Amino acid sequence: MLAETNFTAAFPVTEPVVRLRDFSRSFGANTVIDRLNLSIAPGEFVALLGRSGGGKTTLLRTLAGLDGVSGQDVLIPNSRAVVFQDARLLPWKKVWRNVALGLKGPGVRERAEAALREVGLSHRIDAWPLTLSGGEAQRVALARALVREPKLLLLDEPFAALDALTRIKMHSLVLELWRVHRPAILMVTHDVDEAVALADRILVLDAGRIVAEEHITAQRGERGDVGRVLRQRLLGHLGCEVTSEHVLSAVDVGASIVTFPQGASA
Fold it and tell me: Which residue range is the domain that position 233 belongs to?
């Protein structure tokens, strides 16, 4: 069952990190976000699915503070960070300087090095970005985001360009870092299996509105049965017609979804 456990027990009622009430965004006559309501609790891991053009990028830009929200009921924390699909490293700065970019106060290099150790890159501290693999570059981007201890971490399809095995490793790393630092996370993804594997809650955005919301209370690593049912339902919300014989969870086939130790949970 998806909702046997009381969701508020895992995330007690408190002031949300993110809150949007009747939020809208238009470009000329085109309404991209239409009276959207959204809240994200401290430490919650939320995945956002949606078809291209459904408003995901516009919503993420709003939460990242890249677009103005004048006159609208929007609450976002000052402490926030974004990891994009492209690591966006500065090639003329060594790895540790990319992580330290914008940091202030004492011990900047030490803080950057500690963040790189957390993502398994202590041996690449003085490397140049162009010598990194795709997975290493995304690890640097994660270190750069988390060294700031953000209350909100936005992930914009950060694993989409990685090969399948590297993506699985990055899933594990993100969960490990999330458990240590406990930011609220909103992850934009097109991968239903990835959303089911990682998130506490999954939202489907279509035509600028949230058309479906699923809470997952099963522990990570024990989502096989739940995942099959939920995957089919989510694909339906995304406009994909599937039959039960065609629905194979990635847990079954060992692809696109990270395998966690039995009983592992946030």
Answer: 10-87+150-253
